[in-house]
Every structure is written in C-alpha cells, then in structure tokens.
Amino acid sequence: MVLFDLDGTLVDPAGAITGGIGRALSAAGLPVPPAAVLDSMVGPPLGQSLRRLAAVPEERVAEVIRLYRSEYRERGMAASRVYPGAEALLGRLRERGFRLAVATQKPAPIAVQLLRVQGLSGYFDSVHGAELDDTDGTPAAGHGKIQIVAAALAAGAAAAGGDLPVPAMMVGDRHFDVEAAVHHGIPALGVAWGFAAEGELEAAGAAAVVRSAEELEEHLMQLAGMAAVAGPAAGR
C-alpha cells in the first residue's frame, strides 16, 4: 500500500496555493508575507499557517480562508498541473497490484475534487484529508497528518480484511509527511520537487529523497521487495 501526499507530491499547484493565499490576504487588507514564507505554508493546515506564518489575527482567519477557497475552486484547481511522470507511475503501481491512497492536509472534499479535475481520481482506493478547514482554531478542525495517515492505514487494513497490507509506504514533499510515517512505523520517501527546504526531508527521517518519478518507482519497488523478503505475510 502506498500513501501519497497531494500538493507538491502528485500535483504542482503552479502558484495556485501560494499566489491564492497572497491574493486572499491582500483582498482582506492584510500584509502578504515574502515568497519563501508563502512556500512554507504549503503542507500544514491552512488555518495553522495563516496564524503562525502570516500573523493573521484570529478573528480574520475564517474570512481569509473563505477568500482563498473561493478562488481556488474557481481557478486554482484547473491551473494546477500533475508532475511529470506521476500519472504513469500511478498506473504502473496499480498494474502491479498496489493499493493506493491519498493522505493530504487539504479538506477531503477539496482533495477529491482536485483529483477529479486533474484526472487522477481513478487511481486511488481511498482519499483522506482534514474534515474541514481550521477556521476556529479548534483541536477537531484541520486534523494533523498523523491522524490522516492513521485513517488511510485503517482503511487499507479494513479493505484487506483486517490485516494492514504490507508494505505500507508514504510519499510526500514536506516533513509533516515523513514524521507521520515515522510515527506509524512505515518508511517514507521524500520527493525533491515539492516545497521542502534543503535537508528538511532527510532530517525528518525520510528513507530516501528522490528527484524523478522513475527514481521514486525504483525505491518503492526496493522497499516492497525488502518487506516481501521479511516474511510470508508481506503483500501489496
């Protein structure tokens, strides 16, 4: 079973996220952070990023999120692009019998819509994301990646009749993805084409950081082979 992050891993937002956040802040009359700060906002829940990285006052967070989501649905999804080789890789993994799932910090309904717009929805057995945007700063809103990965693994286990398909692996572009995988005891592969800072993925514990879809496929197959050798219960 392979879990994929979405933005920065499978889909290049092509400025739809960072530019959209900047335009939402501007429309709300709030300061727009530098480009490097906007880049770092791709990955965590949006409400959390607005509070911690853009210093948006608590009472304005919901407003900025609404502005951002409105533009993202109108233009951002269509402006995004699937990374080179990603769709072909998904197809080959499916042909080999791997179960595939998405584990993203996006609210799940928006993730499903983005996959549909980008023509990727047919490759995945399940899609897991935040239940809703963290507009109020409540613990239940904007679930962290650890909980989202847990839900994806549980869905995979249920589909397999109660036993987690082995090996389970995580693919992502930020330390949140890697840390969630490490928490659950599964290997994580980082992709260098996303939004991670230099050394971020390695420091978080990534088994490897890859620079192309072909290299990613090689590492996935190596990890699958290692797990298969480890015991007869190993599967995909």
UniProtKB/TrEMBL annotation:
Keyword Transport carried by entry: no
PANTHER family (alphabetical): 5'-NUCLEOTIDASE, PHOSPHOGLYCOLATE PHOSPHATASE
One of the Pfam families matching this protein, by short name: HAD_2
InterPro entries in the cross-refs: HAD-like_hydrolase_sf, HAD-like_sf, HAD_2, HAD_sf, PGP-like_dom2
GO terms, molecular function: hydrolase activity; protein tyrosine kinase activity
Lineage of origin: Bacteria, Bacillati, Actinomycetota, Actinomycetes, Micrococcales
One Gene Ontology cellular component annotation held by this UniProt entry: cytosol
Record-given protein name: HAD hydrolase-like protein
Alphabetical UniProt keywords: Hydrolase
